[in-house]
What does this fold into?
Amino acid sequence: MSNRLARITAFISLFFVMAAGLHASAFADSWIEASSAKLQTLDKITARISALDVALNNPERFGTLEITVQRCAYRPPEEPPENAAFLTVRDVGHDTSLAPVQVFQGWVFSTSPAISGLEHAVYDVTLIACNR
It folds into this structure.
């Protein structure tokens, strides 16, 4: 299922690039790399919302989830505002004897969280911004 979701995410991203009339190289050149991401997390059981700053390639825990931001980039001020991050999310559970399960891997966008997002029974994770 995660491979299918990754392919769908890649297709949607490519569609937006093509729809904007941009070549892939022009698209890549217009993004500014960030050193961390600000995520909004929601525990659906307790209705607790919190913000989480995650440095690149430094796994952070939220509940039973382990969130790793592998890349985060934002558009320059003269372009339409957008933040994009590549996340890997694993559910490590409460029982440390069980192997972690990858529940999400892909690109998330701050202005369009519904395009590609974490689908989890207990938690929601959305991208707020890439920290400069």
In short: The radius of gyration is 15 Å.
